[in-house]
């Protein structure tokens, strides 16, 4: 596996592979890779001939007061893990390489970026769509892999790809969880032992809601209220949002039907965690 | 030459050509082709193996109260002219094909879109960059050709391509003029005989300013004032703007040096005309 830092270099390498008829899989990450990322890389390797993993803590998707400075970083660790999972290239550009002096352009997906995480993180998705658009143009992958943990991100990226006629396939991949249910996240490293335990309330509430639905509950408000009540019982937890929406367009629903997304964001101490489940109701 | 209406079809055709190693030239237009457009198509044909011309009167780049409804259209005329100039494909999508129900995404170049035409046509350049981004993703050209008459558009498109790491070359091409100096424009068809004559004041003022500069004038304000005075002498003319800026970044300049753009927009009756000259000062 090679580590590449320049747009020009990665472009040349990928073009050579594409000329040989190889299919390119791409996994964009902010690094500090965990088993969730690795599952994306493995899947990309299974489905493509050549896999590019980007590691870039994108400054423009952090809002004021967020954890850009402290976000965990370790290129050495990431490069070992990415290689072990099957990456052929690790693309690790500098912020200056991505946003040189005089940079002026944004890619904006409207409406669906105003709710859920978008409501509490203004500008976040504009940063995400812009950097992902750039990566897609640089890497020109056949398929790009995103974790379903960032459920809204997946919907937003799919919308961008469709709207801007980008010629690639987005492959959403299942959430990977610790044995006790906690969804994997690079931000889990922020949690101390007590917070780590308290953080279980996210997945526990979602799983309990799933049980309710499997037992016939179809009222979105009841599901939402149940989860809010459940999480509120955890003294260390502060709810940012709990939403029951259509998994396809993130629109609010009253009655559960079709493809349903239950998504939530909760602060445990200073750490903001997100989690979700997606349920198909026939 | 084939006329293609669907994204899927044009993409298949272009991919087949690219697989054969052919270079793709692209000329995006709003149709009602004139000699200016044809010069772009001929140049594209000279420099590439396969030329796609799009004809699409893009609704999103017209502002409220502008001439979207009345903008001249004639596919029959355009297809004959495009073919005669060497186009291999004329891409003529519907608005619904380009912006299907639920469309949500914009590409925005900031700052340089706020001045000149951007100041009097709010949202215009957002419409332009978004549709051009879409066309680039659909056609995946090696080179795209734009007329220098829309000088600001060229600068904005070049900025977008650079910022979003789009993998193609932008080729700006010289303004084509009538014998008497009037810059070609599909909107010239709006002018009656008197207005047509009055419209000459744009190019005449620019050429006179060029003479001043060639005779040593380096004061941008003097040039600007001279042009404004000149145009104000034409009773049918109403100035929208006259600007003397850097041709590279559209920033205001006081002293003429380097690559200078003198750009103006003037209403003759109800018709808004634009024109410009670019002068390199060593």
From TrEMBL, chains A, B:
Binding site for ATP: 30-37, 147-150, 176, 184-187
Domain of life where this protein originates: Bacteria
Binding positions ((R)-pantoate): 61, 153
Binding site for beta-alanine: 61
Keyword Cytoplasm listed: yes
Pathway: Cofactor biosynthesis; (R)-pantothenate biosynthesis; (R)-pantothenate from (R)-pantoate and beta-alanine: step 1/1
Catalytic function, reaction form: (R)-pantoate + beta-alanine + ATP = (R)-pantothenate + AMP + diphosphate + H(+)
GO molecular function, one term: pantoate-beta-alanine ligase activity
PANTHER family tied to this protein: CYTIDYLATE KINASE/PANTOATE-BETA-ALANINE LIGASE, PANTOATE--BETA-ALANINE LIGASE
Record's subunit section: Homodimer.
The protein's name in its UniProt record: Pantothenate synthetase
Annotated organism of origin: Crassaminicella thermophila
Lineage, top ranks: Bacteria, Bacillati, Bacillota, Clostridia, Eubacteriales
């Amino acid at each position: 596996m090679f580590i590449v830092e320049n747009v020009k270099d990665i472009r040349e390498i990928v073009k050579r592979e594409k000329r040989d008829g190889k299919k390119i899989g791409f996994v964009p990450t902010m690094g500090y890779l965990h088993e969730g990322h690795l599952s994306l890389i493995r899947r990309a390797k299974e489905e493509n001939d050549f896999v590019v993993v980007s590691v870039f803590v994108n400054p423009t998707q952090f809002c004021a007061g967020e954890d850009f400075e402290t976000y965990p970083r370790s290129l050495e660790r990431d490069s070992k893990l990415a290689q072990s999972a099957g990456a052929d290239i690790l693309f690790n550009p500098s912020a200056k390489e991505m946003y040189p002096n005089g940079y002026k352009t944004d890619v904006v997906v409207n409406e669906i970026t105003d709710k859920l995480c978008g409501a509490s993180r203004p500008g976040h998705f504009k940063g995400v769509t812009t950097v992902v658009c750039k990566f897609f143009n640089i890497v020109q992958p056949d398929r790009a892999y995103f974790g379903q943990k960032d459920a809204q991100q997946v919907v937003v990226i799919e919308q961008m790809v469709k709207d801007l006629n980008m010629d690639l396939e987005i492959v959403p991949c299942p959430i990977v969880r610790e044995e006790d249910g906690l969804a994997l996240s690079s931000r889990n490293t922020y949690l101390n032992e007590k917070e780590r335990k308290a953080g279980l309330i996210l997945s526990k509430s979602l799983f309990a809601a799933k049980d309710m639905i499997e037992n016939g509950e179809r009222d979105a408000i009841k599901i939402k209220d149940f989860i809010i009540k459940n999480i509120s019982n955890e003294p260390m937890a502060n709810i940012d949002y709990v939403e029951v929406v259509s998994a396809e367009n993130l629109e609010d629903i009253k009655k559960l039907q079709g493809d349903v997304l239950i998504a939530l964001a909760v602060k445990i101490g200073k750490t903001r965690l997100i989690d979700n489940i997606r349920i198909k109701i026939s």
